[in-house]
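Colleagues,

Please find the record for the two-part complex below.
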Amino acid sequence: MNIQAAPTRQTDLAAEFAAIAELLCRCTVQIKSDRTGFGSGIIWHPDGLVITNAHVASRPDATVKLWDGRVFEAAVTARDSVRDLAALTLKATDLPAATIGDSSVLRVGELVLAVGNPLGLVGALTTGIISRLGFVETPKRQEWVMADVRLSPGNSGGPLADAQGRVIGVNSMIVGGLALAVPSHAVKRFLLISGAEAV
Amino acid sequence: MSSFPSERTSALLALSNDLAATVEQAGQCVVAVKARSRISSSGVHWRKDIVVAADETIRRSEDITVTLSDGRTVSVTLAGRDPSTDIAVLKLPDLDLPVAQLGEATSLKVGHLVLAVGRSDEGSLNASLGTVSALGSAWHSSYGGLIDQFVRLDLTLYPNIEGGPLVDAAGQVVGIAVSGPRRTVLAIPTATVNRVVNQLLEKGRIARGYLGLGMQPVRLPERLKQTLNLPSLGGVIVVNVEPNGPAEQAGVTIGDVIVALDNTPVSDTRDVQAMLSPDRVGKTISVRMIRGGTVVELDMTVGERPRWEE
């Protein structure tokens, strides 16, 4: 790790972290679907497509609150409870959508950032690295991005992003302290199969 | 941030890439170790055909396999183990594999970024990032093993990474990552691993000094301390003497209170343990003790602790 060279670079680490955190907070929403509390979601498309976990959007409709405070009623347009994904649509345009990264080219050790609304806190940032990539029996054999990053239940459905702020996963569960996120390429497949992106 | 920064302009991206490259490079010498029933652990290809793992994760002495960086799974033999330093040595068949680039844990400072690297049983790399949270001098584990340096880590040690290398920011292996008491994460430094590996390969075991005594710490009366000119109020009272053991042969009996070994005051059984390092085996140690209100000195030859049947 060539850390000694860092001070001569044109931007500094702390400022970059702050900039990416802000970028991520803007595309992260709070979702309330039932009485169990808030989950998180990601604005996937500026025209009102939001991705979250199926266990966060457990009912046909949900209330979505944006970073700027606006509140929308959203409808669940696609759901896959095995892959734990749900697509919501809300009537809005020009939303601050996430930039989606390619989760098929990740490397163990890469820095990652997670944003979510754990325990009622809005826009909480945690950082870590990718700890492991591949398939895990959960209990069905599925592909995951596993991150060494601290998450809490309210992080569910929120973004896991790379060092450039590109969303590479949807935070879904914590197993033995390890954060498991649905890879962004699995989200794309889910949208393709369900046809939710065309809505 | 309308356009994404390149590595040339982004310190964060450069750090991220460096971390990933360090994991990949160090990971070449990391193997998955299958020697317990559920979750595999990790090990380091320490030197040619020698893998070091955490002894705590080796739950059987036969039918142990390791999964290598190239995906192959091979059978290994347990060449030796030392629970007192949590080190087990596995012997690989003759293979052409990269060995660890060893550094010294003495170069670590509190706050340094470190990585623990492991391999999961299906062969993929695992990593955990953290910092050195505390450093200290040499210490004895609860089993009496000498660890050359205390290195505590602020890092999550996932079960399948345990026994894997602790890698510093320069990509060098400075120790193995193990779980310590009370959910702490510690590193067994390179110097300790080298010493224990040498002893295990030479003798197949770590000789431990043995007196053949059962002891309990006791406090002595202030008046006795003054009368006998003792350095402290503490000592260990002998509650059991092993027949034909070194202590019995030297003439120690139940009720004797040991106050010093080789002029080093002892007030706890730990202090006695600390005097029984491997190099003491076969050597003479002077014992100062209180018997019937007077100080008695005698010489004892330190024996070797009998091996537990496996």
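Confidence is low (pLDDT under 50) at residues 5-9 of chain A.

Comments are welcome before we finalize the supplementary table.
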